[in-house]
Specification:
Structural class: mainly beta
Radius of gyration: 18 Å
Shape: globular
Number of strands: 11
Number of helices: 1
Order of helices and strands: HEEEEEEEEEEE
């Protein structure tokens, strides 16, 4: 479930009536609250979208770190590397799922830094998700999402949320634990 800090709401309300905020910049950041999970690489988490008939079983299949760029035109910036994460999305709901999976996925490193999926960064890890996927009830989509991280960053968590990241239901996988 996503929550917004009281400091953020206070600062926004104050700005809306024409005032200036003396709140520190850190208070203007939304706080995300995610229920703990037992997700590890290979495990499946059931997620619900913003509508009750939107449901996916999301499996984090594989992590390729580092992932080699598929061509010389899509390479990470100097000092960075690509990490490719393969997800399987099975539509267990009653409505078709049509979304851009990359919009709702993040990697989090040991310092708490969040990294969004990179657009148009194909790797040799395998076939990427297209910009948008459409999965009818009962069907499955499989693809990689690519993230660009600093060379020294160690990803510890992968997150996925439906509705381009706007769903309150966020799946979280611990990348430091070995699957059982």
């Amino acid at each position: 479930m996503r929550t917004v800090s009281v400091s953020l709401l206070t600062a926004l309300a104050f700005l809306a009536v024409g005032g200036a905020s003396t709140a520190p910049a850190s208070a203007l950041t939304a706080v995300t609250s995610i229920a703990p999970s037992d997700g590890t690489i290979g495990s499946t988490l059931s997620l619900t979208g913003n509508e009750s008939d939107e449901r996916l079983d999301v499996t984090l299949v594989k992590v390729v770190d580092p992932a080699r760029a598929a061509n010389q035109f899509a390479t990470p910036e100097a000092g960075n590397r690509f990490v490719a994460v393969q997800f399987r999305l099975k539509n267990t709901g009653e409505a078709s799922y049509k979304d851009a999976p990359g919009n709702g996925a993040e990697l989090v490193d040991g310092d708490g830094q969040h990294f969004s999926a990179s657009l148009y960064a194909p790797t040799k890890a395998g076939p990427p998700f297209p910009g948008t996927v459409s999965v009818t009830p009962g069907d499955t989509a499989l693809g990689y999402l690519t993230f660009e991280l600093p060379a020294a960053a160690e990803p510890v968590t992968a997150q996925f949320s439906m509705n381009s990241g706007f769903s309150d239901d966020v799946g979280e996988w611990d990348l430091t634990r070995t699957p059982v």
